[in-house]
């Protein structure tokens, strides 16, 4: 496994096609990654075109968006509703609808097929293709054209699958298995890609174990934070008792239920408020748990806010929490650290690598235990000096390790070495399909 900093940078500006099957900028890490990496690559002088399906990303000036429209079957307004057949354009649309109607999730496959079609019409327009964890069969067809291909895998989705199936009951277990049917494809595709950029050594270990990817194919390339927005803000006052969490509220993997139960325990003893940056499904598990714990007057959900507003919110909290059972990296953890907001996080996945295991820049606790989490939050709320010390240490760690400019520079070096490797390898790429 190649370590950060290896290799030399490109000797000329590169033309980069950055693929992302969905890029919603305020929910999940995919949109955040695409926006900030593309901006910093462009700032380094590279020409970046983002190919994305819906929801389309918000991109910065200097980056081109190439829309790869799907049927948008999972949009917020009318999820799981297919348009009439008269609006289906081709066999890929038929495949997309058929997979949804049979309880599967088609987007990684169908986007990869559409991206392959789009790129084959523009083979001379790009020096390198960078896929952001699509891992569909179409990627192998792109590689077969001879275009140098780099892939990022943030973490293996098989981990999400295992946790959600374990949480599901009755027939929901069967539907979850079907929904995550694309994971088998992703593993097979991943085993035939090289190089694969991974955000942490922990994530690399998990990808090797879960997907069977050779460690030699993976290169650690950490993620970053936009310090133009996420930085200590002396003009923002900390709100006493405010705790903030940025997480997908209804995903069991993110541990929001653990945090809600811990907040309920703390609320019996003191004035505390919890702000969760997410949009739970009405009547869904998180919505029901808030009612069950009588937390409706203590918990606020916000979504769709821009980076400045999010940074100000994090900076206004006395503590930030990342209660996940697993993280391949955790941008929310780094964003909190950049705002000098004291962080309590699970000792799980890559979080120890991000936060540091010495307790200097954040407090690590076992995941899934509301009692331990409540105790850690209470102790930290009562210790003004420790919160100030921890926040200052976290900001120093971010400056040393986690800026998007450094990430873009390292990624560009990965591009250059991949282009050189493809140029020096005779013959066609791997076959296009693996049943």
Please give the structural blueprint.
Layout: E1 15-20, H1 29-43, E2 47-52, E3 64-67, H2 91-101, H3 107-120, E4 128-132, H4 137-144, E5 149-152, H5 157-167, H6 171-179, H7 182-190, E6 196-198, H8 201-211, E7 218-220, E8 242-246, H9 256-267, E9 273-277, H10 285-292, E10 299-302, H11 307-316, E11 319-322, H12 331-338, E12 343-346, H13 351-355, E13 363-365, H14 370-381, H15 384-401, H16 404-423
Parallel strand pairs: 1-2, 1-4, 2-3, 4-5, 5-6, 6-7, 8-9, 8-11, 9-10, 11-12, 12-13
Please give a handful of descriptors for the protein shown.
single chain, 435 residues, alpha/beta, Rossmann fold, 2 domains, 6-stranded parallel β-sheet, 42% helix
Give a description of the structure:
With 435 residues, this protein is an alpha/beta fold. It has 2 domains: 15-224 and 404-423, Glycogen Phosphorylase B (Rossmann fold, 3-Layer(aba) Sandwich); 242-401, Glycogen Phosphorylase B (Rossmann fold, 3-Layer(aba) Sandwich), CATH 3.40.50.2000. It has helices at residues 29-43, 91-101, 107-120, 137-144, 157-167, 171-179, 182-190, 201-211, 256-267, 285-292, 307-316, 331-338, 351-355, 370-381, 384-401, 404-423; strands at 15-20, 47-52, 64-67, 128-132, 149-152, 196-198, 218-220, 242-246, 273-277, 299-302, 319-322, 343-346, 363-365. The strands form 2 sheets. Strands 3-2-1-4-5-6-7 form a 7-stranded parallel sheet, sandwiched between helices. A 6-stranded parallel sheet has the order 10-9-8-11-12-13, sandwiched between helices. Helix 8 (201-211) links the parallel strand 6 (196-198) and strand 7 (218-220). Helix 5 (157-167) runs antiparallel to helix 6 (171-179) and helix 12 packs across helix 15 (384-401). It is globular, with a radius of gyration of 22 Å. The two termini are 28 Å apart.
């Amino acid at each position: 496994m190649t370590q950060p900093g290896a290799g030399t940078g490109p000797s000329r500006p590169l033309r980069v096609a950055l693929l992302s099957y969905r890029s919603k900028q305020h929910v999940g890490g995919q949109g955040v990654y695409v926006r900030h990496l593309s901006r910093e690559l462009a700032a380094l002088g590279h020409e970046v075109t983002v190919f994305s399906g819906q929801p389309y990303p918000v991109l910065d000036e200097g980056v081109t968006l190439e829309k790869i429209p799907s049927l948008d079957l999972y949009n917020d307004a009318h999820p799981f509703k297919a348009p009439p057949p008269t609006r289906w354009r081709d066999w890929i649309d038929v495949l997309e609808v058929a997979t949804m109607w049979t309880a599967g999730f088609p987007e990684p496959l169908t986007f990869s097929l559409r991206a392959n079609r789009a790129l084959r019409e523009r083979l001379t327009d790009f020096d390198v293709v960078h896929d952001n964890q699509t891992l569909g069969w179409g990627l192998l067809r792109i590689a077969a054209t001879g275009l140098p291909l780099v892939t990022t895998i943030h973490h293996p989705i098989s981990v999400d699958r295992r946790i959600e199936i374990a949480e599901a009951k009755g027939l929901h277990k069967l539907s979850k298995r079907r929904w995550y049917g694309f994971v088998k494809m992703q593993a097979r595709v991943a085993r035939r890609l090289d190089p694969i950029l991974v955000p942490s050594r922990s994530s690399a270990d998990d990808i090797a174990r879960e997907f069977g990817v050779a460690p030699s194919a993976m290169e650690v390339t950490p993620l970053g934070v936009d310090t133009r927005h996420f930085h200590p803000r002396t003009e923002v006052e900390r709100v006493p008792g405010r705790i903030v969490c940025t997480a997908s509220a209804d995903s069991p993997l993110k541990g929001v239920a653990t945090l809600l139960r811990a907040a309920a325990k703390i609320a019996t003893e003191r004035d505390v408020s919890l702000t969760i940056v997410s949009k739970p499904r009405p009547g869904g598990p998180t919505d029901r748990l808030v009612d069950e714990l009588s937390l409706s007057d203590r918990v606020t959900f916000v979504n769709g806010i821009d980076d400045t507003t999010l940074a100000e919110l994090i900076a206004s909290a006395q503590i930030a929490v990342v209660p996940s059972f697993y993280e391949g990296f955790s941008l929310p953890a780094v964003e909190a650290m950049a705002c000098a907001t004291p962080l309590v996080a699970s000792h799980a996945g890559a979080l120890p690598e991000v936060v540091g295991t010495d307790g200097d820049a954040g407090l690590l606790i076992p995941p899934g235990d509301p009692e331990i989490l409540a105790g850690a939050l209470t102790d930290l709320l009562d210790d003004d000096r420790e919160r100030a010390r921890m926040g200052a240490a976290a900001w120093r760690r971010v400056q040393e390790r986690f800026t998007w400019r450094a990430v873009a520079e390292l990624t560009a070096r990965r591009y250059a070495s991949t282009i050189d490797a493809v140029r020096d390898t005779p013959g066609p790429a791997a076959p296009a399909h693996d049943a």
